[in-house]
Amino acid sequence: MVRCSQIVEWLVDGARPVSNTRDVVAELCDRLVGCGIPVSRFGLFVLTLHPQIMGQAFMWKPGTVVDVISASFETFETEDFRQSPVRRVIDTRTPLRRRLGDADCPMDFAVTRDLREQGVTDYLAVPLFFASGAVHGATFATEQPGGFTAAQIAAIETVVAPLARVAENRSLERTASMLLDTYVGNSAGSQILAGQIRRGDTTAIHAAIWLSDMRGFTRLADRLPPQMLVDMLNQYFDCQVPAIVKRGGEVLKFTGDGLLAIFPIIGGEHPRQVCDRAFAAALEARAAIASSSSVEGDVRFGLALHVGEVLYGNIGSGNRLDFTCIGPAVNLAARIEKLTGDLNRTILASEEFERHCSSRFVPVGEFELRGFGRSRRVFGLADEANLTEQGPSVMRPA
Questions:
Q1: CB neighbours of 43 closer than 8 A, spacing ≥ 6?
Q2: Hey, where are the domains in the chain?
Q3: Distance CA 43, CA 90 (A)
Q4: Most-buried pick from 43, 325, 343, 349 (CB within 10 A)?
Q5: Which pairs count as long-range contacts for 50-59, CB under 8 Å and 24+ apart, including other chains?
Q6: Superfamily for 186-395?
Q7: What H or E segment, with its residue span, contains residue 32?
Q8: Architecture of 5-184 per CATH?
Q9: CA Rg, the chain, in Å?
Q10: Residue 21 burial by CB count (10 A; 0-12/13-18/19+): exposed, middle or buried?
Q11: Cα separation of 239 and 292, whole Å?
């Protein structure tokens, strides 16, 4: 009789000290093989809560790294997935077995036909029941002549329930991290998960500040159908956010048509390096918006770049908090951003940002900014000195 009591105990204990699902799968399969269950293929299929990914599959084979496959919402609507054994198991909530080594085994799934060609002799798919009520799946396959024995199947069945608990716990951790990344950003999300959740928990940090806004948004909101307006906003932000994130920026907030982001200056990093990255992101966003198609008419945007100290952390009321940044530096960026419309400019920078940035700016003047006691020098780009209403800050219709 095959005994997997140590594997069950390990899973019941939370699969410690393994820290992620990929490693849990690798350790589980190694332990199964070690106790006499000849698994040659294993798959863990978990639905997830993600704006772009419907689920993930963790696929194991001996001697290889566990392959993690993310499936989009569209994948789950394909005929291949609808007709897969995993979908059958999830829908029916009952196990499914195919003895592929038997001549009369039904070949009713594409994956089982492929596995038979690869030498697999037995295939078992089981539902994983989460405490939340959701159903997910796992598959076990072997190349052992004659397939799994009855004792081996019984042993596999003993690990299914504790495996579901571990998979659910890891799924909850991924979901919490992903939701925080999606709604507050990676750095802020990490701090929140680490326990920085009390109102007033803030940190003073030095950062380059990005504050952008769409021109004429109110007029468009009055004229466009709601869904068309939402689609246009998503397209507009798609022109900015990837450029920010890939250069180390943290998107903190969308306020209607506005976007607030920071590029933290951390460790021994020189402000020049950070400002150069922020400026490169600004140029990329400007080019993306210039070449993008809006849903209707021409959409303009303005962007202010500044560098200074901000308070970064939890601000709000009671148990409804916002993880954001505030301070005079943010206020100054907001005032400069308002100038972009008055001056018909796309990108404007403060004197502090211009001083740290390697790229060449040109002065556009000194301005009295509301809330600041003295006039401030503001800088722009030479190629925007003669912008017209149809200049490069426009999203043109296709």
A1: 57, 58, 59, 60, 86, 137, 138, 139
A2: 5-184, 186-395
A3: 14
A4: 349
A5: 50/178, 50/182, 51/182, 56/21, 58/21, 58/22, 58/25
A6: Nucleotide cyclase, GGDEF domain (3.30.70.1230)
A7: helix 21-34
A8: 2-Layer Sandwich (3.30)
A9: 28
A10: buried
A11: 8
Percent of the chain whose predicted confidence (pLDDT) is above 90: 57
H-helix or E-strand containing 365? strand 362-367
* φ, ψ at 231 (rounded to 5°): -60, -40
The neighbour count for residue 13, using CB atoms within 10 Å, is 11
Share the mean pLDDT of the chain. 85
Could you say which DSSP state residue 75 is in? Answer: G
Q: What is the phi/psi pair of residue 339, to 5°?
A: -70, -25
Q: Quote the pTM value.
A: 0.66
Whole-number Å distance between alpha carbons of 226 and 258: 17
Mark the ranges of the chain whose per-residue pLDDT is less than 50. 1, 295-296, 388-398
DSSP-derived letter for residue 24 is H
Q: Give the pLDDT of residue 136.
A: 94
Q: Looking at residue 335, what is its pLDDT?
A: 93
| DSSP per position, 149-193 | -HHHHHHHHHHHHHHHHHHHHHHHHHHHHHHHHHHH-HHHHHHHH
Residue 278 burial (10 A CB sphere; 0-12, 13-18, 19+): buried
Tokens at 56, concatenated: 């993930």
Render pLDDT for 304-357 as a digit per residue (tens, 0 to 9): 999 999 887 777 777 777 777 888 999 999 999 999 988 989 999 999 999 999
The number of angstroms, rounded, from the C-alpha of 31 to the middle of its chain's C-alpha atoms is 32
Bridging pattern class, strands 202-215 and 135-142: unpaired
